């Protein structure tokens, strides 16, 4: 079930990357990093070479590198994502050939293109894969330096933006540099939002019922602390648990119906490591 869910979200991510690249970045010749950026540069010099086909060729070399250095699971997912993106762009080229910019405002199209692509890339990276190309290099940088994925993408794509400045001109090159910076920021933000949790502390006279709901309904655990209330000098049971946003909303609604006088504090957590969450690496 989890594998099917991962494939579904990877397909969503690849579609977003392909859509943003083909409809917003490519028509304006904005080479905002990655193999898509390299393909756009080559396509500008040699218009008869399709962007999708160029991307497929580059992916073969780089995904082999990813399999060797990072591992076969990452490599397999990356192959799936990278070729899906290339195939989708190749398919879009057949359906909507000779696509033109939506407007004369390149900056607006850059922002929309990068926003769409960055969201897709963030989803894919969060699933332990990459979109291929220079993102494989970024993943390798992330693995050995612990620099965030977004910043690693920025490092890996600097070369592409420099090439874009030379081939496409300073104006296009500056747009490409801005695009890479925006892209790295969006990727990190998407990954943080997808991995955000709520640390919830609950004090209630119905503690046992709340504990059972957390364990049986939400399939999470909890930690129990005992504290003394300063106002009444009485003993209090404090239930601490960590939930995703959907689980937290269910718990809050349950407590509201069970004990509307319960005391609850909530903190946003950007990363949780250990059993039931991400592995400690």
UniProtKB/TrEMBL annotation:
Highest taxon listed in the record's lineage: Bacteria
UniProt key word Repeat: no
Region forming the signal peptide: none
Transmembrane segments: 7-24, 30-49, 61-91, 106-128, 149-168, 174-192
Main location: membrane
UniProt keyword annotation of Membrane present: yes
Domain DUF2179: 220-274
Membrane topology according to the record: Multi-pass membrane protein
Classification via PANTHER family: UPF0750 MEMBRANE PROTEIN YITE (PTHR33545:SF9), UPF0750 MEMBRANE PROTEIN YITT-RELATED (PTHR33545)
Protein name: YitT family protein
Lineage, opening ranks: Bacteria, Bacillati, Bacillota, Clostridia, Eubacteriales
């Amino acid at each position: 079930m989890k594998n099917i869910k991962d494939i579904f979200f990877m397909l969503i991510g690849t579609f977003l990357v392909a859509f943003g690249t083909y409809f917003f970045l490519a028509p304006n010749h904005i080479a905002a990093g990655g193999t898509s950026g390299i393909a756009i540069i080559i396509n500008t010099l040699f218009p008869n070479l399709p962007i999708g086909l160029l991307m497929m060729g580059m992916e073969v070399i780089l995904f082999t590198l990813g399999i060797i250095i990072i591992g076969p699971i990452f490599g397999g997912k990356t192959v799936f994502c990278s070729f899906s993106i290339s195939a989708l762009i190749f398919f879009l080229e057949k359906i909507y050939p000779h696509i033109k910019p939506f407007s004369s405002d390149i900056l607006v199209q850059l922002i929309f293109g990068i926003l769409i692509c960055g969201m897709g890339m963030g989803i894919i990276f969060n699933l332990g894969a990459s979109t291929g190309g220079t993102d494989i290099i970024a993943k390798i940088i992330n693995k050995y330096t612990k620099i965030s994925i977004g910043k690693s993408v920025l490092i890996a794509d600097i070369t592409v933006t420099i090439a874009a400045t030379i081939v496409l001109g300073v104006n296009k090159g500056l747009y490409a540099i801005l695009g890479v910076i925006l892209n790295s920021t969006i990727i990190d933000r998407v990954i943080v939002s997808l991995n955000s949790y709520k640390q919830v502390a609950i004090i209630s006279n119905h503690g046992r019922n709340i504990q059972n709901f957390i364990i049986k309904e939400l399939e999470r655990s909890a930690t129990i602390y005992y504290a003394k209330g300063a106002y009444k000098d009485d003993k209090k049971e404090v239930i601490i648990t960590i939930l995703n946003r959907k689980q937290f909303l269910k718990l809050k609604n349950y407590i509201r119906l069970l004990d509307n006088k319960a005391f609850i504090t909530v903190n946003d957590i950007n990363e949780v490591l250990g059993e039931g969450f991400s592995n400690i690496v």
